[in-house]
Design goal:
The chain is α+β, with helices and mostly antiparallel strands. The protein has a domain of about 90 residues. About 35% of the residues lie in helices and about 25% in strands. The protein has a 5-stranded antiparallel β-sheet, with helices on both faces. It is globular, with a radius of gyration of 19 Å. The termini are far apart.
């Protein structure tokens, strides 16, 4: 009976580690099953940069889209290390790429009830930006 209980415990723990949330480590972890670490967009046109980012594999990515005609309409966050990343925002009709966005800021951004206010006070003109 003890062996069955130990096996069940192992299977439950294994299932949670395999299919649960991203595992946090207390040591540096390089890109795993990604290709974003070799992403070099410096000399590409804006459209090529967007395409290269969207086609790369990141450790963490998340997005939102809301139906409206002005203000922040969509956002997509890409992180290779799980801590900082690229943020592609659609503001009005323009797409912009913000660099070096902390993941914690992204998480606060998508939780806010005032996307435009949060964008104006916490992101716009505070991080490196790439425009078309």
């Amino acid at each position: 009976m003890i062996q069955i209980r130990n096996i069940l415990f192992f299977l439950i723990v294994f299932y949670q580690l395999s299919y649960g949330q991203e595992v946090e480590h207390n040591y540096p972890v390089g890109p795993q099953s990604t290709n974003c670490d070799s992403l070099d967009i410096q000399y590409l046109s804006f459209d090529q940069k967007l395409k290269a980012i969207e086609e790369s594999v990141f450790r963490f990515n998340q997005n939102f889209k809301i139906s409206r005609t002005s203000g922040v309409r969509a956002g997509h966050y890409y992180s290779c290390d799980g801590k900082t990343g690229l943020l592609i925002l659609t503001v009005g009709k323009e797409k912009v790429i913000y660099e070096q966005i902390p993941r914690i800021l992204w998480e606060k951004f998508i939780e806010t009830t005032d996307l435009d206010g949060f964008f104006e006070s916490n992101i716009k003109e505070k991080f490196p930006v790439i425009r078309d």
